């Protein structure tokens, strides 16, 4: 099972979604958590993956936008 | 691990989110998939759980709205 990425920006919506989702995922799945507020150099990578807002979960070119914390444009 | 519910309405956004998410969840988690288009009598239950749009995933009073397929108001 490949690695997934969870992009967030530290907002309360992000943290809540992270806690809900990550606890329920298959323990065999590796998830890299990327804080775009702290790692703005990775915003371009997130956009390329199709991320429009955070929190977002990316796996195998599939993007799940979870609730709505912030637009990725607002993180730039 | 308690049961989760995945509410959808058969739309392409719903099906795509379902395939992405359900494959990655912990195999120990039971997920009831509820098609609100086919079971409109369960719309009230979904709303009570906090579902505003589908697809949505509910677990332990936490709601994750995944991408955006349709507003729950449009399913009534």
Automatic annotation (TrEMBL), chains A, B:
Highest taxon, organism lineage: Bacteria
Protein name: Thioredoxin family protein
């Amino acid at each position: 099972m490949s690695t997934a990425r969870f992009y967030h920006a530290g907002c309360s919506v992000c943290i809540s979604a992270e806690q809900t989702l990550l606890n329920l995922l298959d323990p065999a799945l590796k998830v890299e958590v990327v804080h775009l507020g702290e790692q703005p150099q990775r915003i371009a990578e997130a956009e390329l993956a199709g991320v429009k807002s955070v929190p977002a979960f990316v796996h195998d070119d599939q993007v799940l936008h979870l609730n709505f914390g912030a637009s990725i444009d607002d993180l730039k």
